[in-house]
């Protein structure tokens, strides 16, 4: 599901017209139409935050990194999968090595996939709601699509969380931060080994 589809579905669930949502966000009806139809995809962080507030959700959900709250009256789905919380992942060490595991949590994600949680350190992804100390839930997989948020091992370094973009010969790891110190990291695949560990599928704010 795209961000535009999420905006549309939440707007309709709230009983808002495009014009009414635009008034709350401070944009014209035509802008909401463009957001929902995918004609505009690179929204400013401030706009995403206003949309999230008006639609009673989070910026992370609009960006595809979180799941929405249950509707009123809905029955909760009880988490069934216990997954490890990794404090940090180092190159050359098995991902589930005892030294990496700082505890366990549960998730309601299923579908036969393998998941782990990772404790975030730093503010390189805070513009999309992935803040220092938060947990991210990661689906274990060896590749991701361009533009997806991934956990990646770079050479002999520790794992990092960034938006992932690849060509035949390079990988660019893109921060999403309000701190200008964080800049895109571009790697030549002939010189640096890049290993995708998984795709970020959820952000846990309260753990």
Question: Could you describe the 3D structure shown?
Answer:
It comes from Pseudoflavonifractor hominis. Belongs to the peptidase S24 family. This is Helix-turn-helix domain-containing protein. The chain has 207 residues and is α+β, with helices and mostly antiparallel strands. The protein has two domains: 60 residues, 434 Repressor (Amino-terminal Domain); 124 residues, Umud Fragment, subunit A. The protein has a nine-stranded mixed beta sheet, with no helix packed on it. The chain is globular and about 55 Å long.
What's this entry about, in short?
The protein has 207 residues and is of the alpha+beta class. 20% of the residues lie in helices and 28% in strands.
Helix vs. strand class:
alpha+beta
Which CATH architecture of the largest domain is right?
Ribbon
Number of helices: 5
Helix-strand string? HHHHHEEEEEEEEE
Given this structure, which CATH class of the largest domain is correct?
Mainly Beta
| Structure summary, number of beta strands | 9
- Give the neighbour order of strands across the main sheet: 2-1-3-4-9-5-6-7-8
Low-confidence stretches: 69-79
Main beta sheet strand tally, sense and closure: 9 strands, mixed
């Amino acid at each position: 599901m795209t961000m535009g589809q999420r905006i549309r579905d939440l707007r309709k669930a709230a009983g808002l017209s495009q014009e009414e949502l635009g008034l709350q966000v401070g944009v014209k009806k035509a802008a909401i139409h463009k957001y929902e139809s995918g004609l505009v995809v690179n929204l400013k962080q401030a706009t995403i935050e206003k949309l999230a507030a008006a639609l009673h959700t989070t910026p992370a959900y609009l960006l595809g990194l979180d799941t929405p709250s249950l509707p009123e009256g809905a029955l909760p789905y009880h988490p069934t999968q216990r997954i490890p919380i990794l404090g940090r992942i180092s190159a050359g060490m098995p991902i589930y090595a005892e030294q990496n595991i700082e505890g366990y949590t549960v998730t309601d994600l299923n579908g036969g996939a393998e998941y782990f949680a990772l404790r975030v350190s730093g503010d390189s992804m805070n513009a999309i709601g992935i803040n220092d100390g938060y947990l991210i839930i990661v689906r274990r997989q060896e590749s991701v699509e361009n533009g997806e948020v991934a956990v990646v091992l770079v050479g002999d370094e520790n794992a990092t969380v960034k938006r992932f973009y690849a060509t035949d010969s390079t990988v660019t790891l893109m921060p999403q931060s309000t701190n200008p110190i964080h800049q895109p990291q571009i790697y030549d695949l002939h010189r640096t080994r890049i290993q995708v560990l998984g795709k970020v599928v959820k952000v846990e704010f309260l753990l």
